[in-house]
Design a protein that fits this description.
heterodimer; A: 5 strands; 15% strand; globular; B: Uridine Diphospho-n-acetylenolpyruvylglucosamine Reductase, domain 2; Uridine Diphospho-n-acetylenolpyruvylglucosamine Reductase, domain 3; five-stranded antiparallel sheet; 32% helix
């Protein structure tokens, strides 16, 4: 089936089988390898992207379901030079080690901070509960969200 | 890990969708939010011949209040309930319960009717809807019918929906005047499958309690705030090493939900 969608403001088209997962289309059809595929059954959150601004697990959508929709992946975050404030906060607080889960965390957090610019620590923990990190540990990630929230409020 | 091949249909009209569901020569599944079905497809635990995608049927995408009754359409997503001022004001039990459903990414896609039709015993909303005396509107090419929680939920992942039927709407009556509600649950991590939970509605005339984790379907009890926690768990037959712990957990969750509802 023919699909076309906007990813990070650019149009992408492709021919896919109906069973092609959105996560696979993003990586193999659109060639955007920033979105990582972890568990492929909606547990780990590594493949989180934004569908019309909302965080979704791209392994739990078919590519055909995103036809005509607008997506954002981790590639959209950083400006041409430098890092997005959330990425910079991750770097400064050592919130990533191997980095495999990081794109999913970043896309979850970006949507979360837009909806809740003044989150409490409990709210941050709940917002991150759908993303698994197996090496860094969550404490540094929570610190990164707090730091990024503070900077985004000021900017 | 990829789904087995299937034929994909994305109808725009409900009649067209119901006609596809009525095909007897094929195993047809409805795809709504996909948060339970797509993992089953990815694992190939489900291998339908045909997937009928609901997402294009605009007439099913509603969440509204008519004459004090809340109507949840087949495409209303958990996030819609979470953000609805109407739900927060009129049905705080639903607003409270929905925050325990999965994670933000799951609530953004998952539908309320889909969760109900999936009938996972660890799901929060069937329990809340049971305590609220919700009614379930079902359609097929043959006609329509309206079911209560008792009539809909039959067992583990099993409802009385026929293969050609679709849960098109959940109707939640207004909370009686002077009533309150409360929800409590225990999960190892917020958003994980709950081990136990309780939804309570306290009215001037008495209390209603529905338990999650007490069996394969929501367990409903009516009585008084004081007696319900003990009375509800007394009849539960748990086996295994953790039976005592489960009973104690549910009694405590029931107590907390009822206390909040009575406050």
């Amino acid at each position: 089936m023919r699909v076309s969608m906007e990813i990070n403001g650019r149009p992408y088209e492709g021919d896919v089988e109906p069973r092609t997962l959105l996560s696979d289309f993003i990586r193999h059809g659109a060639g955007l390898h920033g979105t990582h595929v972890g568990c492929e059954h909606g547990v780990c959150g590594a493949c989180t992207v934004q569908l019309d601004g909302e965080p979704v697990r791209s392994c739990l959508m078919l590519a055909v379901q995103a036809n005509g929709r607008s997506l954002r992946t981790v590639e959209s975050l950083a400006p041409p030079e430098g890092l997005h404030p959330i990425q910079a906060a991750f770097q400064e607080t050592h919130a990533l080690q191997c980095g495999f889960c990081t794109p999913g965390f970043l896309m979850t957090i970006e949507a979360f901070l837009r909806e809740r610019p003044h989150p409490t620590e409990t709210e941050i923990r709940e917002a991150l509960a759908g993303n698994l990190c197996r090496c860094t540990g969550y404490k540094a990630i929570i610190e990164a969200v707090e730091l990024a929230a503070e900077r985004l409020r000021r900017s | 890990m990829k789904p087995a091949p299937f034929v994909y249909d994305a109808p725009r009209e409900l009649d067209e969708l119901l006609a596809l569901l009525a095909r007897e020569d094929e195993d047809v599944k409805v795809l709504a939010g996909g948060q339970s079905l797509v993992p089953l497809l990815n694992f190939r635990l489900a291998r339908p011949d045909r997937l009928v995608d609901l997402n294009g049927v605009a007439s099913l995408a509603f969440l509204r209040v008519d004459d004090g009754v809340l109507r949840i359409g087949a495409l209303a997503r958990h996030a819609d309930l979470e953000r609805s001022p109407d739900v927060a004001a009129g049905w705080p039990l639903i607003a409270e319960a929905v925050r325990h459903v999965g994670h933000p990414q799951i609530r953004a896609r998952g539908t309320v009717c889909g969760s109900v039709a999936h009938a996972d015993p660890a799901a929060e909303l069937p329990v809340a809807l049971c305590a609220l005396d919700a009614r379930f509107h079902v359609r097929s090419a043959r006609g329509s019918r309206v079911l209560t929680s008792d009539e809909l939920f039959l067992g583990f992942l099993t409802t009385s929906l026929e293969p050609d039927e679709l849960l098109v709407e959940i109707e939640v009556p207004a909370m009686p005047d002077g009533s309150g509600s409360g929800f409590a649950e225990h999960a190892r991590t917020h958003g994980d499958f709950a081990v136990g939970g309780a939804a309570a509605v306290v009215t001037p005339g008495g209390a209603r309690l529905a338990l999650l984790g007490a069996g394969p379907v929501p367990a409903r009890f009516d009585g008084s705030v004081e007696e319900l926690p003990d009375a509800a768990v007394a009849g539960l037959s748990f086996t295994g090493a953790d039976a005592g712990w489960r009973r104690a957990l549910l009694r405590e969750l029931a107590r907390r939900a009822l206390e909040r509802a009575a406050a």
